[in-house]
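JOB MANIFEST
job_type = single_chain_structure
chain_count = 1
residues = 788
[input]
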Amino acid sequence: VLLKTQLREHDLYAEAGDTVGNTGWVRADGVRGQCELVVSDTLHQSGLDVREFLFVIVEQLNYIAQKDLARFNKQLSRQSGPPTAAQLAQQKMLRHRAHHEAEGNNQTTRAGVRQITYGEIIQVQHLRTKRFLRIVAKKSAPLQKTSRAVELHTGSSSSWLRVNPFFKHKAQGVVVTLGEQLLLESVKLANAWNLNWARCKTMANDQVYEVNCAEVGRGFYLELYSRSIADDAKVLSCPSPIRLLHPHLCGWVSASCSLNKRAPHLRRPDGQARRQNAKDIWVIEPCLPDTAHTGILWDVTPVSFRHFGSGQYLAVCEQDLEEAASPSASAAARDPHVPATRSSRPSVRRLIPLSGSEVRLSLAEGHSPKASANNDQVRFAGCMLVDQPGPASWFYLEPCSALKHGEAQNVPRGGHMMLRWHDPSTEALYWLGCEGKKKGTRRSLMLNWCSTRFARDAVRLDVLDDPIDTMDDSALLYDCEVVAEHTKLLRTEIHPRCTDLSDVNVAASVCALCEHAMNDMIFFLTDSPHWRSEEVHSTEPDALAEVWTVNHDRQMLTMELKFIDVTFALFKDFIDQVPVLMDGDTSWGRRAVAANVSMQVRAGEVADAEQHGWNRVMRNMVACMKTRCLKLIVRLWMCCFFGSRTIEQYLFKNGWVDTINELNGHGLGASDVFVALMGNNGALVRKLDRATVLKFIDFIRVLGPLNTWMSFLTAVCAPAEVAVGVMQQMVLSNLVFAGHRAPESIRTATERNRQDLLITARLIDNAPLGISLGAPLQGSPPPPLEQC
């Protein structure tokens, strides 16, 4: 269901949708764990990701055994000595009970659909994050302090909500009708503490609609989005995450997660690929709001395909069709002497059938396919991605076999089908296909829309998860959801506001959100037990001090969903707001620590209430928060690439290795990241230049012989404990002896390094300096000096 409400503050009994801009929809943010209202008259074909707004109404679940286990574990953590044998036995028994209770809750969640009545206790579960709405009785709302906070939680007794009638002519025990206003009362608080919303302003002076819990509260509508129908385990529903396989060419319908690349393609993985790619995931959405009860029907229900990573919609390039229908294009098609114009988009071509026996299949809604003589020319249109859905992105699912036509039937989960588009202007039909034209230098192929129906272009629809029915996400899909949430948060809310942080209130708000997002992502990538943990800690866990392990699958998702790209773009704009760092001050990190002040306002400045005192405190606070955010971003990079040759090469290809190298010596931890990047990758070490080696040697002279600098020189000479003679010679030529033929300036600098940095260095007179460090081949003289 969708949670809808009306937005008139002083009229509690107004109806939602009676005027334009009077409707709000509850959206849950998995990163921050909070809910807010989004103003929109409708969610269908609005461009918003509907999966952020979908909730599932479930039965009241039990949490007694899980609460007893949590309480007992808390007691064990507080005692000084180790647990006794009796305590371990009791802990084992409590774990067994909690496990059985969790299994029972899962069975209750997957139970069939039934009617609910007023007075019943329910729970509202967010579809995307699988967490419940919880009302925290002892915590005030972030913005409206007189209300209680509403958060996303794994589930507890605070998640119990009682359904009460909004109007007095409804009584307890009456069946709840979808689309009517009702109250959601907190069972723990009771006394008419209902779900509420309030229009507030944030620290950055942004107006938002906060969802909280307050006395009296507001009325909400339960609007049906999708319901389980007959044989729901076999029927396709919305919004299901799917993948489209082209069996004839052994490829997946895919697209880049970058917002600048708008050409879908057919990705053909090689035989060594053993994991699924996040670029292949699409979400099928209905185009019309009246499909909630009927589901998706063959040839009748229009649907849209939203790309999971980029949030854009699959569409037909209508400009190609317009060019094909223009007189100039027709003349060019008839006259071979008319030169064709080149375009960056896929070109439209007209082909004459080679045989008169070929037929064209045309299909009307709800009718069987008809064969007609193919006297028309075959038209091809390009395939593209668009931001907003429209007629060019409305498609019909068509069965491959003619036996399935006739009476309207529901589309099954899985199976082969054709994707058909209906041109509203010319009444022509187009089918998704692939001619085998290569895209780029790899194995990918270009997609297009063809006016002739080829059975070879049938695609197999694989449903990754049917959340309406089973509520069971696969590990890949859940990890993709987390990475996609962070990517969208950085793109839409953090990065656009980092270009100007002159306002201290805006800077504090952006830095706080950025720090929270970076902490959450580091804990996620490192499989930390602190990731979205419900335990209460006396001190917040520090992501910079987290002991972590490598999760290769999650690392690959950060590259496929372009999360790494967004972090480097964010860092570039963020670093422009720190002029001291841009000047190359090597002691910037130490100065930032020395300038550290308390995050709270000093008592004397509060008493004085002077504006300049407040601004000074805020500027110092923002400076510390900027430092913290930069360190977290740098540490996040290491969590993304460590141990993955593919991502390390991806960083080098995009020039980001130089970005990390430029940050060395600024106190942000970039040196540790750079050493980790080079220490195990001999291919990247061989691409280092002399300037980088000299930079680290200067660090030793200025900042002292820290372990990081020595580890870097060790990694340069022997990455992954494999000696590289060329790099060994480079390090020695800069520390010990530059060579007789080196320029005077280089020899002078090397001699100074030898005298200042080395404790003992002995050069043998008349030694064969300049000869290759490697042993010469047996029976052959050493290589000449010019080749060394």
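[summary]
The longest strand covers residues 132-140.
The chain has 20 helices and 28 strands.
exit_status = 0
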